[in-house]
Amino acid sequence: MTHTSTRPRRVSPAEVRARVGEPEAMIKAKVLDRIDDHSRRFIAHSPFLTMATADATGLADCSPRGDYPGFAKVLDDRTLALPDRPGNKMADSFHNLAENDGIGLLFLVPGVRETLRVNGRAYPTDEPDVLARMQTEAKRPELALVVEVAEVFFHCGRALIRSRLWDPASQALADEIPPVSEVVTAQLGIDIDPAALVQTLEEGYRKLY
Amino acid sequence: MQQTQQMQQTVVDHIDQAAEDVVSLVLRGPTGPLAPWEPGAHIDVALPNWLTRQYSLCGDPADRDAYRIAIRHDPLTRGGSEYIHRFLRRGRTLDVSLPRNHFPLVSAPEYLFVAGGIGITSVMPMLRAAVASGTPASLLYVGRSKASMPFADELTSRYGDRVRVVATDQEGRPDLAALGSMLPPRALVYCCGPASMLDAAKAAFPAERLRMERFHAVPRQFVPNTEFEAVCARSGQTVRVPADESLLDALTHAGRPVVAGCREGICGSCELTVLDGDPEHRDDIGASAGRMYACVSRASSPRLVLDL
Ligand code: FES
């Protein structure tokens, strides 16, 4: 046991402000209300993002999305579109967005320490011209998510520097994580042949679109 | 065998606006001459965003130091033309394939070239070659507006009245049937343009004297897909190709990636050598004996043995 109490102490909002201060004016000014050329170039080179949504009660969810660089399409300087691909758990996001259309995206470009944050409101679409731009392996997605952009800004690179996220040596951490088959067997409390599980999983990974 | 998959490095030497939504690129070999090519050839260009696209070579085959290509910004871009138009920078290195030619210029006593829009790229070197060899040749170049047509001025100033430029917003669509009725005997027609133009050309010119290159595959019906096995002869690996997956994707997912471009059976990047079994050809190129295009073609036998 490292804690003496069962629950860490809650700090009040006023106290938080007193300790970390207001956001600085200069940092605030970097928040754009549209996608400028730099953000557009960043999005065009980003193969990965995380997407945060919340339901009506505020229960939040964050999930990864990835594809070839530029898979998030900039339709114009205030509108983005993201493809729905298998395994995206997009159903969760669609469920949340139906109740609460707020969305937060964090774009990453491998090797770049700064990240791009895009916040806005989102809704699903099946617009053929949008889906046509997302066709891969001769398949187009059934649905896409349109994001009406409200805020766009670059986030400084400290988190990625401290985390050594792009340092190849960091990949040694993966050796310490048990294979997913072990995790699933333990979490589901079922006793199935790990080899069979791995095979099912790899079969699933084979079909990416 | 898999010669088409060999790549060469180039450097983006020039990016020029060639028309209102067309840029032309000059790609230079960093260390010496690039692989030779003939009129009608195209290359695959591997873009920094992992996409591969095909573009006709529109420069001078005698210039061994550089390739020239021209790219129209497609409003429904999946990221190829948009990348080149918005994000590609001078000095960037780009890997390109060796030139391939599915649209070769066959010798004839006379030529009529018909190009629509960006289709001018594959036809330009043909006109150059015909004129250089003293063969009578003329070009009809059609586009939706003068401003949208790359190289129109360059062509008229170089070839004078051999070239007729028609902007349909001013003059309407030209009458290909009339041209067909006046076609000199033994003249060959080379046509590259959008589907509507190719359809008009098919109606206007006798099939045995018409050569066409298309931007997109013709929609066609095929027998329902069946599952088959692909055996990679060199490694001995057997890859199952389910009915809902292409041979190209099945090979790629099995760890035997094949270079692909159009995925529609028109560019030829994904050509494979078949050692045994019966391919069911679905491409628009016309695979030669013992070859197949993995993006669209399947098998009518339960097993194909591939030189992979
Ligand atoms: S990828 Fe173009 S023919 Fe197969």
Protein described:
The complex is a heterodimer of chains A (209) and B (308). Chain A has 209 residues and is α+β, with helices and mostly antiparallel strands. Chain A has two domains: 23-162, Electron Transport, Fmn-binding Protein, Chain A (Pnp Oxidase, Chain A); 178-206, no CATH class. In chain A, 31% of the residues lie in helices and 25% in strands. Chain A contains eight helices and seven strands. In chain A, helix 7 crosses helix 8. The longest helix of chain A has 13 residues, at 194-206. Chain A is globular. With 308 residues, chain B is of the alpha/beta class. Chain B has three domains: 7-97, Translation factors (Elongation Factor Tu (Ef-tu), domain 3), CATH 2.40.30.10; 111-213, Rossmann fold (3-Layer(aba) Sandwich); 228-306, Ubiquitin-like (UB roll), CATH 3.10.20.30. Chain B has seven helices and 18 strands. The longest helix of chain B is centred in the middle third of the chain and has 13 residues, at 120-132. Chain B is globular and about 60 Å long. The interface between A and B is medium-sized, with 21 and 20 residues. FE2/S2 (inorganic) cluster is lined by residues 260-263, 265-270, 283, 293, 295 of chain B. FE2/S2 (inorganic) cluster binds next to loops of chain B.
What is the fold's blueprint, element by element?
The complex is a heterodimer of chains A (209) and B (308).
Chain A: H1 13-20, H2 25-29, H3 37-44, E1 48-54, E2 60-66, E3 73-76, E4 79-83, H4 90-99, E5 102-108, E6 115-125, H5 128-132, E7 144-155, H6 158-163, H7 180-188, H8 194-206
Antiparallel strand pairs in A: 1-2, 1-5, 3-4, 4-7, 5-6, 6-7
Helix pairs in contact in A: 7-8
Chain B: E1 7-19, E2 22-28, E3 42-46, E4 52-56, E5 66-72, H1 80-87, E6 93-97, E7 110-116, H2 120-132, E8 137-143, H3 152-159, E9 163-167, H4 168-171, H5 176-181, E10 187-193, H6 195-204, E11 210-214, E12 228-232, E13 238-241, H7 247-253, E14 271-276, E15 279-280, E16 291-293, E17 298-299, E18 303-306
Parallel strand pairs in B: 7-8, 7-10, 8-9, 10-11, 12-18
Antiparallel strand pairs in B: 1-2, 1-6, 2-5, 3-4, 3-6, 12-13, 14-16, 14-18, 15-17
Organism (chain A): Streptomyces smyrnaeus
Protein name (chain A): Pyridoxamine 5'-phosphate oxidase family protein
InterPro entries (chain A): Pyridox_Oxase_FMN-dep, Pyridox_Oxase_N, Split_barrel_FMN-bd
